[in-house]
Design brief:
The protein is mainly alpha-helical. The chain has three domains: 36 residues, no CATH class; 129 residues, Endonuclease Iii, domain 2; 126 residues. The protein is built from 15 helices and two strands. A two-stranded antiparallel sheet has the order 1-2. Helix 11 runs antiparallel to helix 12. The longest helix has 21 residues. The radius of gyration is 25 Å and the shape is globular. The two termini are 31 Å apart. The relative contact order is 0.13. The mean pLDDT is 92.
């Protein structure tokens, strides 16, 4: 087991401890002692530990993960990103390989109708593609306006099932999706005279208030990411021009936008991120998710310092370019740097970095099933 002893020597040297200081143990005894202590710290709950934690490491990781990971937002890199993107927004017809908006037309229906259609589709925009196969909900509105009319939905909730069938969204959390849409229709009926369009005036054109009102309630089906997409589109289509807090409308953070953020170094980490097996209850994932959104927001803010710039109306207005044109097509796990607009931006030492993955959520499958005590055993199973 010389490879294990070599690992121990490397570990000690990284801590400034001479390997010669460890007792003279056989390789198998060294491995047994080390792995026993590691297992107890990482994965076992002793009698002194609160039931809120699966191990001492879990308690430590909850408190100390920000300091251990050492994430920072690099303004210099954020500005480089803004400079790289500016020509595409200035003259999009010269950069047809980069799409900056979804190829979907909203022509032929009023702003009020557009707002309702996007309001109800944004709720469902989770693990489904609302544009799959060229599907266009705005065209669908012309055929079935009742699917997007609050009074009709409240009067006949069966319309929701027809709408979900159209989106092919009845399978993935279909019951929840139904409840979300009904609750959202009742919310508009009770508080906004039946139309999502009225939220703009009722919330004083404040993007932050609209965002919080949608996402904080929970039962409407809106997360902050869904709210950001909805608010982004209202600004992109010229329907709403916010009076304040436009900067809060964030790029929707996912594996693609995280990967690009790490590789362009708009977000820097102390070292490559931990595997999800070490990220008990996804504290690393949550922190990276939050910091990446802030970093893209910062790039958008610094974009305004460029002379004669063509900065879009919200930070989230960058996400289709990042997610689709770069993340999906170019900045893959095996990137095609030679054809990427960020080729001159990404530092050489960050081009290999990968985004975090989420292994579980508390109360769902994952780490909860891995709880064990000092008797050992246990572990994660599907």
């Amino acid at each position: 087991m010389t490879e294990f002893r070599a690992f121990i020597d490397e570990l000690l040297e990284s801590l400034g401890v001479p390997p010669s200081s460890i007792p003279k143990l056989s390789d198998d005894e060294l491995a047994a002692r080390f792995l026993d202590r590691l297992n107890k710290f990482m994965y076992q709950r002793d009698n002194k530990l609160s039931s809120n934690y699966i191990s001492r490491f879990h308690k430590f990781w909850e408190k100390n993960h920000p300091e251990v990971l050492g994430l920072i937002i690099d303004d210099k890199q954020c500005l480089k990103v803004a400079k790289a993107i500016e020509p595409i927004y200035a003259e999009p017809d010269k950069f047809l390989q980069y799409q900056i908006k979804p190829p979907i037309s909203r022509a032929g229906i009023s702003d009020k109708a557009v707002t309702n259609v996007r309001f109800f589709t944004a709720i469902q925009d989770f693990k489904i593609n609302i544009h799959k196969g060229g599907r266009n909900p705005f065209d669908q509105y012309k055929r079935t306006p009742e699917w997007f009319t609050t009074s009709e939905i409240v009067k006949d909730p069966e319309l929701i099932n027809r709408f979900l069938s159209y989106l092919e969204a009845t399978g993935s959390q279909g019951d929840k999706r139904y409840k979300w849409m009904l609750a959202a229709a009742e919310f508009l009926s009770d508080e906004h005279q039946g139309d999502a369009y009225n939220m703009f005036k009722n919330y004083k054109a404040d993007a932050g208030i609209i965002r919080d009102e949608l996402a904080s309630r929970g039962y409407l089906g809106y997360s902050y990411k869904k709210a950001d997409m909805f608010l982004r589109d209202m600004a992109e289509w010229g329907i709403w021009k916010y009076s304040k807090n436009t900067q809060l409308v964030d790029v929707a953070s996912d594996s693609n936008t995280m990967r690009i953020a790490l590789r362009t170094a708009v977000v820097r980490t102390r070292f490559p991120l931990f595997t999800s097996y070490l990220d008990v209850y996804c504290y690393q994932y949550g922190l990276v998710d939050e910091e990446v959104a802030k970093a893209w927001r910062r790039a958008w803010e610094l974009w305004s310092t460029l002379p004669n710039n063509h900065r879009p109306p919200t930070p989230a207005s960058m996400d289709y370019l990042l997610y689709k044109s770069i993340g999906k097509a170019i900045c893959r796990p095996k990137p095609k740097c030679y054809m990427c607009l960020f080729d001159s931006v990404c530092p050489k030492d960050t081009r290999h970095l990968n985004p975090p993955k989420s292994i579980s959520q508390k109360g769902m499958t994952g780490w909860d099933s891995g709880v064990t005590n000092e008797g050992g055993g246990g572990g994660i199973m599907s």
